Amino acid sequence: GEARNRAVIVEGSPFTDGRFIEVSSNEIDINNVSSTLFQAVHILSSNDVDISSNTVDITNVNQGSVEGVVLEGSSESIIESNRFRTDVPSGLSSNSVYGIIARSSSDALYCGNSFNGTGAFDGINQLFNSRFHHDFSFYGICDRSNVAQNKLGDATVGIYCEGGSRIGLQPYRGNEWNGTVYEDWHALYDGTPQQAFSSQFIVSELPFDDNGEFDFSPFNFFEIDGEDNFGGCFLPITNPTNSDEAAARGKSSSDVFNWEAANRLNERLNRYPNLLGQSSIVDSFYQANLNSTVESYSQIDNLIATNSQIMDATLDADIKNDLDSIELLLSELAQLSQDYQDANSTTAQNNIQNDINTLNQDVIRLSTEVATIFEQLEQNTSTNLSYAYQLNEAIVPENDFASDEQFVNRIALSADILNSYEISTSDANNLLTIANQCPLEGGNVVWKARALYSRLVTATSFNDDNCQ
Description:
The protein is an alpha/beta fold. It is built from 11 helices and 24 strands.
């Protein structure tokens, strides 16, 4: 078959006994791809997979094909808050760069993902810089997909559905088209109007792109009905799964499994409260953990995750717009300066100088706005980290897993709060002890410890060959 390279692959893991798969907070750089298929994350024939807060950077795609996240024959998965970026240099084809692809995968949530290309199309035949071919692609039966609050960027097609495919009705999902170049369509159902009804997007108004345009096909793929566009990221599954109930019971013979399953279920219920009220087993678990160690660690993880996403969110919005405007103003100022030199009368020079003064004031105003946003960003960051540190120190660990989690959080938060932080020899040794554990015995904190040790002490490879 076709040669494939993958950064992450999950294959044949249809767990229903409380086990779960999480692919999160990874940075995947794909560069210099030629004559092959490269997939950043490939989920094949697996259930209950959480793919969140990953960054996929794609550059220099020559003749190959790159797919960001691919779901194939899988169900009950979450693809949330991932960022896809491509920066293919001018002159190289980016027609084979895809963001998220779903093939015959139902009951999935696609929420809060963003796609950034820097494309330009002259309306005839030239491509400049970069874009995705499809931000989203759906093939086959993908019933009960929830495509919500995503930010689509430059692409040939923003959302693509193959003819005959089905994703289910999409009411008021709050997706945004933030790019300036959609060469073919902003959204395309590549089939008949009758087929498109089962995958229709219901909106209060069309979500125009940054150029005030929005092209879709067929005519009924998007339907305006005048209601409020409330968006919403909610799990398409309305009942807890067998995995949820197994995690709530916590009766596994593996202590690390019970600990990790409890942490994951608690986070899942906080994110998707619609799962409550359906199972007495799950509801009892939730009530028992409202003020527990599990809940405290969930809050700390959320604060740290929020902190790491603030900068990206800001750069994608206000700061990016201001910086783009400043760049344009500086270009205009350079031209006006040349015009001033070339002017053949004092009157002309005075008029040009007035224009220069006005543009200078605009540059100062926008620069001040950027500085203010960064200042507020630093204040929010400091507040979040300090509160997370206090929460962590207030925890009384109930087992070795909780104790390791508290120690790793303490080191990580100290390093983020104190710009000049240097880890002590004792703490470095303790961190290495946790990092050297088998992840199947020590849990997710082992991965955190390894990343932190490489960051604060020295880059280290860990051997799990004997880990069973």
